Structures
1.
Amino acid sequence: MLIAHLTDLHIRPRGKPAYRVSETNALTERAIDAIAALRPRPDLVVITGDLTDCGLPEEYALLEAMLRRLPMPVLLVPGNHDRRETLLAGLSFDPRSLREDGFVQFCADLGPMRLIGLDTLLPGQSAGALCGTRLAFLDKALTEAQGRPVAIFMHHPPFDCGIRHMDAIRLLEGAEEFAAIVARHPNVERILCGHHHRPIVTRFAGTLAQIAPSVTHQVTLDLTEEGAATFHMEPPAYLLHSYDPVAGFVSHTAYVERYPGPYPFVLDADYPGAQA
Ligand SMILES: [Fe+2]
Ligand SMILES: [Fe+2]
């Protein structure tokens, strides 16, 4: 079982780079092409929010056309840059994605695993929230998993990472209740987030919480008190999650671009294990 996990596409109207610098549409297309060419082919793509930069109908129309190039199903949740109603009107959805309560969430069983997507969008705010309705959805989906391994996907990370301006806009409302629910379910293999545009991992509520890098621009790694909100065009990347009953849930960071190689490991005679 293989899942390609993309995040923070920030699609803009044609011809408008995000923040006047980041060519997010072209970068997203490159990521989609890279995933479509992967072997073995992922069973599923999950996108953890900030699908568009401003939540405009034109942005969702461009994204919809790009996603149609993927030969596997796509599940997604919104981020703070999305607008829920425009998103729902502009994208076609895997049937497992739409919930009756109006949030853009999902609960999907894939092989032995249960995948849960949470909508942490708080309209008009950069920080994330989980209300009682969404927390109840999580609790029910976890209970119904009956001990099967679970991965939870959500845009806003529920933990502090030391990048101050991002910590200020992480999951805030409902974060403690979220941690309490996760702690009651030891079958949660991973909490998988976006939003911070960097690869970050920590221990959280008895499991691992992991942030995927963006397929577009990356937030500057600045752990100083006064660190300003800026970004760098570091290598775009995504996560590849695999699961099998022996190895468990394993997450690889994969780069969108191709780099020189592959080269064989040709051993010199002075290598310690070389035969005399
Ligand atoms: Fe983002
Ligand atoms: Fe975000």
Note: Residues 8, 10, 50, 79, 81, 195, 197 surround fe (ii) ion (ligand 1) (CB under 6 Å).
2.
Amino acid sequence: RELLTGDALWALSVAVAVFLLLVDLMHRRQRWAARYPPGPLPLPGLGNLLQIDFQNMPSSFQKVLNVVPVLLRIPGLPGRVFPAQKAFMAMVDELLEEHRMTWDPAQPPRDLPDAFLVEVEKAKGNPESSFNDENLRVMVLDLFTAGMVTTSTTMAWAPLLMILHPDVQRHVQQEIDEVIGQVRQPEMGDQARMPFTMAVIHEVQRFGDIIPLGMPHMTSCDVEVQGFFIPKGTTLITNLSSVLKDETVWEKPLRFLDAQGHFVKREAFMPFSAGRRVCLGEPLARMELFLFFTCLLQRFSFSVPPGQARPSDRGVFGTIVTPSPYQLCAEPR
Ligand code: HEM
């Protein structure tokens, strides 16, 4: 008899492992089919591992870390796999250090980190409290990442849609001229008298649909939804796009105006998601979008550069959906 060694043994082990996984998958399918909603069955670990891209190992390694996060405890590894995050964190640390140096507890807080530092002081000696230096870093990082790219990407969609629809741009400018004029800057109070502009900003967000799959959530207990059993610990992905782009809801062109030209809120408008974990920055984002958009159209008219073809309105799907790169002409009004 001959013993299997080296390469032969390795190949056999892999074949047996794949065979067992397939048998297991078939069993699970049979058992679960009746209980789970339609769609891929939950085998995230295997699914992610199979996506390894040998041409781009750093990105593949990020996926592996997603599945086996305990590896992140290996000293020095997170910084190597996520260099951009490391650089960003260093910037946040610098900002917070400057804050600590100039912070005066006797004065009212200047901003959120100051208010957090007050709580950190109060919580000193209480290991149970979540007010600590590490959470302050993570909170600032969260707000930067959640708040910057989202608003700026929406603002990248707005001029694109204006150059593709110059009649809409003119209508917005007309409303700006009537309500705000050319002398003073726009204020939030102007919103109430600018239904058309409001409708356009909402349509930019609906059309841009920048976070089509929302943020993943996880069930904290077993739940049943419309007869489907979803066990505790399942990752759920909300398909915001299916609502924002639902043709049965968004049939007419002026989607946020009623017959009298008044702005109307629509239930299916949910670029900020919905429910208890709806975007925390929504009120701030709405202010930013209104003020930036009206300021820009008050001062400039945007158009496709002479001699260039109409740019595409198709989005590029990444972490969030950005417009395809485009150029525009900005003419002072
Ligand atoms: C146009 C701009 C924005 C859009 C489209 C947007 C969209 C979203 C969406 C879809 C979520 C996921 C909600 C869910 O888990 O179901 C979210 C979460 C969040 N957003 Fe925004 N966001 C925007 C701007 C902002 C701004 C300006 C900030 C803060 C300065 C911000 C802070 C956050 C935070 C902290 C969360 C997590 C909330 C939680 O899990 O409780 N966002 N956002």
Note: Residues 142-143, 146-147, 150-151, 154, 210-211, 214-215, 238, 271-273, 277-281, 284-285 surround protoporphyrin IX containing FE (CB under 6 Å).
